[in-house]
Amino acid sequence: RGYMKSVVLDLLKRYLEVETQFQQAHYDKCVINLREQYKPNMTPVLECIFSHAQVSKKNILVTMLIDQLCGRDPTLADELMVILNELTQLNKVENSKVALRARQVLIASHLPSYELRHNQVESIFLSAIDMYGHQFCPENLKKLILSETSIFDVLPNFFYHSDRVVCMAALEVYVRRGYIAYSALI
After folding, report:
1. Which residues form the domain of 179?
2. Nearest to 49 by CA among 61, 65, 32, 64
3. Which residues form the Acetyl-CoA carboxylase central domain (predicted)?
4. Which of 79, 110, 141 is the last residue of a domain?
């Protein structure tokens, strides 16, 4: 696992070395800059150009490598976080899928675990139910509805909760959060 990780990190670094050369300006200007940088020896220039010519295939590979390396483990090593941060800085359209995937992984690494978010949401639901268990207090659910925390992946589990009032509260929070997100986009 350690050797695989070092090989993948090396591949990601090489991808960055090539693609950052083509981020500053138009393609022709980038090639001229490369020629100036490696003036007596044109081999690195040709290697860089040929590598960049396959950017769409490399993007697919890099996103797959990121998924494989970070897929199930939300915690990231410092070296990987540095590389992912650099990948998010790629600003050309041709690199947008890689930059987006790197950004998604970084965001996911900063989220609390699924279990922690599930337990927090459940405690809020249970505290929102009145002491007789017949109805919920919408004011108490407002914390969840307006919360900045990502809970859309947690809420569907409560649709089938053993307590019917918790089910109704979960559905209400889900719908209201959906409307808030939708109205923010308009």
Report:
1. 114-185
2. 32
3. 2-183
4. 110
